[in-house]
Amino acid sequence: MPTALITGANSGIGHAFTKQLIDENYTVFAVDITIGQELKDLRCRSFICDLASFDSITQFALHFNSLDEPLDILLNIAGVMASKADDALGSISASTLLSTFQTNAFGPLLLTQALLPSILKAKDATVAFMSSRVGSIADNSSGGAYSYRSSKAALNSMGKSLAMDLKSEGVVVLLLHPGYVISGLDKTGETKNNPQAVMPAEAAGKLWKVVQSKGISETGTFWHREGFELPW
Questions:
Q1: SS3 for 125?
Q2: 8-state DSSP, 43
């Protein structure tokens, strides 16, 4: 049975991915900063890990690596988004930038680094990062969202470098854009009024098809949930 580890598994796309991979007979390690009853009720192993804390990442990775299991799929889904009011040109602060980067960029990279012993035990492992189209510099025509946009651009850069470093090991690294998704990430509730918005299960299902369709020749690329490649 292949093994998958999913961050942000307590809600939203991460939770939908968890259910999807359980249904496909993966042994799933579900990770989040909190573990709710809906996650506890699933057939997975759930663990608390705070991606904004290097100590938390280190402790979790030490435990996981001690299991001596190959990690076939690592889905870095967890993320945060500051409110529009806190992420605008007139209001952005060092604390908002730091907290957003810790969870959206630093944490996913450091968790992947810490889990490398298990990733490299797997044959043809895949590491995927939940990015966002707003992290595309070429596609930025609206401005704003300083911490969220720049944290996803940084994540894209880190993911690309990781892909180059791990290509010789046969590890596929992908950056993913989920599109508009109705989830708790948007505290305003505006997303549900967007005609392009979908529920987490649909986004996860389409993104999983993207992940499954990519091989080592496509490592270090950036993909929309609908299956087309995005510019950096």
A1: coil
A2: S
